[in-house]
Amino acid sequence: MTIAPVQRTATPGWTDARLILELEAVVETELDRHLKAAKEWMPHEYVPWSQGRDFDGVLGGEAWSLDQSKVTPLARVSLVVNLLTEDNLPSYHHEIASMFGREGAWGTWVHRWTAEEGRHGIAIRDYLLATRAVDPVELERARMSHMSEGFESDNAHSMLQSVAYVAFQELATRIAHRNTGHHSGDPLCDQLLAKIANDENLHMVFYRNLLKAALEIAPDQAMRAIADVVTDFRMPGHGIPGFERAAAQIAIGGIYNLRIHHDDVLQPVLRKLKVMEVTGLGPVGQQAQDELGVFLDGLDSQATKFDERQAALLARRAAAAAAKQQ
Ligand SMILES: [Fe+2]
Ligand SMILES: [Fe+2]
């Protein structure tokens, strides 16, 4: 006699409203853990105010010019993408407040998260303006254009997809800030971005732990959501003017590319949650897990091809630079 495996999705089709209610206790625990782990820090301490001076215009100071910028050309591109991404916080707040609600533990988290994220944009903008790292006029026009477009999540239709997306996206943002700092050529910029990256990491842990609980409560639906998010992932800054070109430079420069996305963002979350090891799934979850496996293998090979193209391009650039010096 065979015993039918226990179906963990005894209640088929969890609605978003029921999941939000069911996860409230987990949010409370995670919020508590987050508040204990998050250390207060002051954005103004990371800005070298003594380097700042008036700009042209109302105060008749000195206009910005490229030679004033001390960060690397790659960091200039990446810092702007990172800042504009942070700048769209009102849209992100709207998205998560609409999805998770503004009451109870969920509401406390939504507001606390928003306050922490607000610090990132403030700190980066103050740093960029005080050090004259980027063109302030171009930056302001890009901000106006980007924010005027608003941001609509690809996952707004599903609570589980939203949680899965932010678990990966917070880690992606952490890595993007951290690597931008490493490539900036300015130890203070590196320090500031490490601080911000630390916040993003704590956000990732919050959402990852929530996703873990969701996998236990509704394994099939959560597996489907993870597969959908992973196979269709794009960064929240994709609407930034000139994003494609900037993303290509950021990829070649080693700040964020397919290899990093696969190795440092997708895999750590999937491994920690043991997503590929979940057993006892129903047909929906099983299919999603299989799709995920196939996708990850494909992405790994694509990343290897990218690695080769990147190495070849960098070698050509180095040869050209050496030839110029002779
Ligand atoms: Fe942030
Ligand atoms: Fe974050």
TrEMBL record:
- Tell me the InterPro entries matching this sequence: Fatty_acid_desaturase-2, Ferritin-like_SF, RNR-like
Q: Does the keyword Lipid metabolism apply?
A: yes
Required co-factor? Fe(2+)
Question: Which controlled-vocabulary keywords does the entry list?
Answer: Fatty acid biosynthesis, Fatty acid metabolism, Iron, Lipid biosynthesis, Lipid metabolism, Metal-binding, Oxidoreductase
Gene3D superfamilies in the record: Ribonucleotide Reductase, subunit A
| SUPFAM superfamilies in the record | Ferritin-like
Residue ranges of the TM segments? none
User: How does this chain assemble?
Assistant: Homodimer.
UniProt lists the family membership as follows:
Belongs to the fatty acid desaturase type 2 family.
Query: What is the name listed in the Swiss-Prot or TrEMBL entry for this protein?
Result: Acyl-ACP desaturase
Q: Give the organism the record lists.
A: Kitasatospora cinereorecta
